[in-house]
Amino acid sequence: MMMRAANIAYLSFSLIVFCLVLHVIVFSVPSWVYYNNGEYSTYFGLWILCSGVVRSETCASTIGHPSFSNQGWFQAVQVLECLGLVAIVAATACSFVSIFLSKAERILNYATFILMNTAAVFILIGSIIFGARVNSIPSTVMLANYLFVPYGFNIVCGALCSVAGVCMLVYKLGHSS
Q1: Cystine design at 151: which of 60, 84, 144, 147 (Cβ 3.0–4.6 Å)?
Q2: Alpha helices (H) along 70-148
Q3: Which domains does the chain have, with CATH numbers?
Q4: Of the candidates 72, 74, 153, 164, which has an alpha carbon nearest to the alpha carbon of residue 118?
């Protein structure tokens, strides 16, 4: 029973670290939306917008950009994704201490469970808002038709955060018996 609990703990920690790496990548790439008609391309993420003639695009920050400055929902998505990242970092620290340094500190297991599920909620709500409102950004095309791979990976990351949190709860319950 103890070996099974340890395996679940290592699985949980591995998933948490994977979620952290995946979210950092998805959080920073400028291609949540990608449009390319062969001669002109536009792509953007949470922080950077790139557009222009294919292979010679110019990039600018989305912060203060005219297309994004009046989009309160966009700033809300940025905040939600930042909060999700902070929660994953905190959960990584809690789970590391709980599993590798102080196995008697079971409150950290609960904290990890809560933090990972909180991160999942932030990430998934941010993704839902982004997908639902992306067409309100001024454009000549329906941007929701061009949601790209990082956007999808963000949704996967949110789901994996919840799975990692549940694994930590299973570890806590198995470890305490």
Answers
A1: 147
A2: 72-96, 107-133
A3: 2-29+68-176 (1.20.140)
A4: 164
**Mind listing the pLDDT tens digit for each residue in 54-93?**
889 999 999 988 888 888 999 999 999 999 999 999 999 9
> d(Cα 50, Cα 101) in Å, to the nearest integer?
45
Give bridge partners of residue 147 from the DSSP assignment: 33
pLDDT tens, residue by residue, 19-53? 999 999 999 999 999 998 889 999 999 999 999 99
3-state DSSP call for residue 91?
helix
pTM score: 0.91
Q: Is the pLDDT of residue 177 over 60?
A: no
The answer to whether 98 and 109 are in contact (CB under 8 A) is yes
